[in-house]
Each structure stands twice: as C-alpha cells, then as structure tokens.
Amino acid sequence: MTTSPPQGNPFAQGQPQGQNPYGQQPGFPQQGAAPYAPVPEQPRRKLTFKTIKNIVIVIAVASVAIGGFIASRDDANTAAVGDCMHRGSTDDNNPDLEVVDCKDAKAEFVVLAKVEGSYSALTAESACSKEAKDFQYSYTESGDGSDFLLCLKDYKK
Fold it and tell me: What is the pLDDT of residue 15?
C-alpha cells in the first residue's frame, strides 16, 4: 500500500496543517499596527505676510528688469551710424524707432549720424546739418539717462 505524502509544510512541527505559520500569533501586534510609537508630525513653518511680500517684490523687480532689457535691445538708443531703423508708430511725438536689419522689409531709414547731448527741434536741425549734409529727418531722445540725436534719411533698398 502506498500513501500520499503529507500536505503542507513538513517542517512546521506543532502547527496545524494548512495555516500560515507566520500569520497572527499570540503576543504579536495585529497586522498594519506599527511595532513602535508614531513619530510626531513636524510643525510646518508658516508663511508670514512679510515673507510673501518679499517674494512678490523679488519677482516684480526681476520681471521689470528682464522686460526692460528685452524691450531696449532694439531701441533707438542702441542705434549706430549705418544701422537701419523702422518706425513702429505714426505718432510724431513718439515714433517708436527700432533697429532692424537692413535686409529686412521693415527697414525704412538709415542712421547717418548719432550725436550725444540734448537738442531742441531747432538745434537738432542745425546739428544734423553739420554732421550729415544729406539728412532728411532728425530724432531726439532725452530723459532716459542718455540724451542723443539721430540724423536719418530714407533707406533705399
């Protein structure tokens, strides 16, 4: 007569067959329970009004500085003799001149002379007559830290 081998763990002596020997045992904590005391939650640092205000100020100053830099990269104050310019506005008091590549279709004027200093409408005409004989237009800028005069003529493509 042959007998079938016993089912279950042959090394589990004294354990009932078919049960997990590592399951719930007397004297041990229930599953899911921590065998140690819970760690108290660390107090969170509260954002004060002063901290929030300082963060907002830093962001605002950085935004203005970056925006000013980007906006001034091609302004009239960066123009040099030989540069081409484009008029961005039809307002004669604020023509919004910007430097453009002379191959660009927007190129309208060429800079014949750039003269440092503050000029009125009358003195600008006189100064451009001395600096560039064949100028057609004068553009003055002041109050931006550097006062200057541009003597311009139409750009012929």
Answer: 54
Starting at the edge strand found earlier in the chain, the sheet holding 109-116 runs: 97-100, 84-87, 109-116, 148-154, 137-141
- pLDDT band, very low/low/confident/very high, at 54 (cuts 50, 70, 90): very high
Q: Centre a 10 Å sphere on the Cβ of residue 141 and count the other Cβ atoms it contains.
A: 17
pLDDT digits (tens, 9 = 90+) for 4-16: 655 655 555 555 5
The number of CA neighbours under 13 Å toward the Cβ of 132 is: 21
From CA 142, how far away is CA 123, in angstroms rounded?
14
Full-model pTM: 0.51
| Residues 110/155, Cβ–Cβ less than 8 Å | yes
Structure tokens at 35: 């065998």
Task: Tell how strand 148-154 and strand 109-116 pair up.
Answer: antiparallel
